[in-house]
Design goal:
Layout lengths: L2 H26 L4 H8 L1 E6 L7 E3 L2 E3 L1 H13 L2 E6 L3 H9 L6 E7 L2 H4 L3 E9 L1 E6 L16 E4 L3 H12 L5 E4 L4 H9 L5 E5 H7 L6 E6 L4 E7 L6 H15 L2 H10 L1 H19 L1 H15 L3 H12 L19 H6 L8 H18 L8 H12 L1 H13 L7 H7 L6 H4 L10 H20 L33
Parallel strand pairs: 1-4, 1-5, 8-9, 8-10
Antiparallel strand pairs: 2-3, 5-12, 6-12, 7-10, 7-11
Helix pairs in contact: 12-13, 12-15, 13-20, 15-16, 16-17, 16-20, 17-18
The structure holds glutamic acid.
């Protein structure tokens, strides 16, 4: 072999070897985070255990963050595995640990100090940090009013950062950071006067207003911010890109808005006064009737909290009320209904609740078999308010419009038409105040949501929210899920 040929042959060998090496290294290149998640078939997410993020109710896992991140896992086609952090420092430590959760969905806001150690997604919820004080105390109006007050915030939170920055300007401000509490504890401590003030995100206030009658917003501290999901530090954008595409999608298709309405709509539905009034009545009125609701719920196989929610909507839990139209008592039964349900004294709360429960079941039974749960429960409530005849008219209107007569979302759009001549003149039962059952059902659903959270076994009793740091056990004293409406 000539030296030229020998050179060519060794060059060829070298090229081949290098090529093989390159191919090999391509094969063993580390899979991206997204690939690893898909490979494992599990998305591990870290969150906080709180009503605004993640908790367990009688049907299992729930919460705003949970529901959103569950949809993301479903989109990826993987299982969701939720882990809860003891506090915010713990959350970031776990997110950074190799082999740990890959995503944090915990109502987190971006901040300068966090930017270096974590990467934030597109926003999904706009919030404003709010200073919270106790009703009856002087209302702080500006930062200098925080001087000399006992303030507590979550350790490691953006709120602690905000107060640290404020303290530079107003050295008289002192605040305590605690890693032993959740936001719900901070609100309770203000409510009970154990601390003077706290600083939390506005979504948490909206959600919890109904539980704490004395909690009031003093003022917004700083500008609106956005809650975002977080992935750990590094260069690998695979998961972050997927998260962002998902958040953009649910923003556009309305899913995100529906979740926001469901979790943070209390104050919208009840109004600020309604929310605080409900909180008061929860403490002062419900305890008198709770046993009756529980007992007849058991007897009639209806979730007692749904009965209590109807009772609140009807009479605000007052046994001796009579309306202009002659309906009376805690469940506001008409004379005819009371008779049909075997109620001899409508002002007797126990009888009224039993009658209401029976009536609710009787109406539900009359509904067309094609209406399935959970819509069946909403239809039954609407009929409780307006009667089955009018409800059927609205279902027919829905059908004529090409909507589903079996979906509450569709039929509730038609109900207000029963008050307009152009529509009711063509119906069998004629005019009805069709907007009313729509509010009736929306309110009851809201009360029911609140009661579900507040009556978790761990929270029951007067010190309700005290130890809300751990996932409460599922309430097994309730009827099985199929007897109560999945919301
Ligand atoms: N958003 C806060 C944070 O990012 C935590 C939740 C709250 O305190 O309301 O630190």
């Amino acid at each position: 072999m000539s030296s030229k040929n020998a050179f060519r042959s060794s060059l060829a060998k070298w090229l081949l070897a290098t090529g093989l090496l390159l191919m090999l290294s391509a094969c063993v290149e580390k899979p991206s985070t997204l690939e690893r998640v898909k490979e494992a078939g599990v998305l591990r997410v870290i969150t906080r255990n709180s009503p605004a993020t993640y908790f367990q109710d009688r049907n299992g896992e729930t919460g705003f963050e949970y529901e959103l991140v569950k949809r993301f896992a479903d989109d990826l086609g993987v299982k969701l595995q939720i882990e809860t952090a003891d506090n915010l420092d713990d959350l970031f430590t776990k997110l950074h640990a190799p082999g740990g959760p890959v995503l944090a969905a915990a109502g987190l806001v971006q901040s300068d100090s966090r930017k270096t150690e974590a990467r934030f997604s597109h926003p999904y919820l706009d919030v404003t940090p709010q200073i919270i004080y106790r009703n009856g105390q002087p209302r702080p109006a500006r930062p200098e009013d925080l001087i000399g007050k006992h303030i507590m915030v979550l350790k490691g939170s953006t709120h602690a950062e905000q107060l640290a920055a404020l303290k530079v300007q107003y050295p008289g401000i002192n605040y305590e950071e605690s890693d032993q509490v959740e936001v719900v504890d901070l609100l309770r401590m203000v409510d009970e006067g154990q601390i003077d003030l706290t600083l939390v995100d506005s979504n948490e206030v909206a959600m919890n207003q109904v539980y704490f009658a004395n909690v009031r917003v003093a003022f917004d501290l700083g500008d609106a911010q956005s809650q975002r999901w977080v992935v750990g530090p590094g260069q690998d954008n695979s998961l972050l890109n997927e998260v962002n595409a998902f958040l953009d999608k649910v923003d556009k298709n309305g899913t995100l808005q529906r979740l926001k309405d469901r979790y943070y709509g209390h104050v919208d539905v009840l109004g600020y006064v309604g929310a605080t009034t409900f909180a008061e009545h929860l403490q002062q009125r419900l305890p008198k009737y709770e046993k009756f609701f529980r007992d007849s719920g058991k007897d009639q196989q209806v979730d007692w909290r749904l009965l209590a929610a109807i009772g609140y909507q009807e009479s605000m839990w007052q046994a001796e009320v009579t309306s202009k139209t002659g309906v009376r008592g805690l469940m506001m039964l008409t004379q005819n209904t009371a008779q049909a349900m075997g109620v001899s004294d409508r002002l007797n709360p126990k009888q009224s609740i039993i009658g209401g429960a029976k009536y609710f079941n009787a109406i539900k039974e009359q509904l067309d078999d094609s209406i399935l749960e959970p819509d069946r429960t909403w239809f039954a409530l609407a009929a409780y308010n307006i009667g089955t005849g009018h409800l059927d008219d609205a279902r027919k209107l829905a059908q004529n419009e090409g909507l589903s007569p079996n979906k509450w979302l569709d039929v509730k759009k038609m109900l207000p038409r029963l008050a307009q001549k152009q529509w009711y003149s063509k119906t069998r039962y004629g005019y009805a105040r069709g907007g009313e059952p729509v509010h009736f059902v929306a309110n009851i659903r809201r009360y029911y949501d609140i009661l579900t959270w507040v009556t978790q076994p761990q929270l029951e009793g007067s010190q309700a929210v005290e130890s809300n740091l751990h996932v409460p056990a599922i309430d097994t004293s309730q009827p099985p899920a199929d007897q109560s409406p999945p919301l």
